[in-house]
Structure prediction request, 260 residues.
Amino acid sequence: MRPLFMLFTATALSLLAQEHAEPPAKAKPHVAAPAPAAHHPTADPEAPDNPGAGLAELAAGNARFVAGKRTRTLDTAHDAAMRAALTGGQAPFAVIVTCSDSRVPDALLFDQEAGRLFTIREAGNAPDLQGIASAEYAAEHLGSKVIVVMGHTSCGAVKAVREANGKPLPHNLWALQAGMAGLLESTPQDPNEDARTYGARLEEVNARRQAQAMLDRSSLLRDLAAAEKVWIVPALYNLASGKVKFFKPVSLAATAPTHH
Prediction:
């Protein structure tokens, strides 16, 4: 009897111990390791870091274009690497506000590859509100240092406004007149000036006025200009020579905003 009793007791103690034992730990759910952060390319080490350097780079690129010695826009050996780098972001050092004219290829005439120029194109290089917002975005969020508002010789939009002489243009072409409001009134034709000379003068004046209007209509650009973080520079591109003539950056003169 005793061996049987001892066997029964041992079995009971074993069952009791199992009953009061801590429950087995639940398996922790599998948590995937966080994905690595997206890789953003480092800033272009050759990118100008101030407005003056930005303007100098544009001038140097245009000089190469005029001389037929482009380098940046002829280097195609690194196109794949350039595209791959640019998928991570952009940091254009300059904004180019220019005409829609097909004869004004801004990347070529400044000899700059993809990712270096932020381009806004409107007939008559007269940016509307969205164009100004685009320039604000480039300057504030992308770090652009210089905004070039560039007209060109033989501009069809300026010619249309000049020849209309205040009469409304048909269809939506009236918007060209709205974009250049006040141009003819501020720049009357000299009696001794032929139409071609007058038109060339209007093209330059229009570039200057449009650059000033961008500054006058944007408090953000005014603040950046006042801090010397951005220059807004009028310019004129000569179709025949390929040369860009830069004028002085527009000033922060307190003038009434120009509404387009």
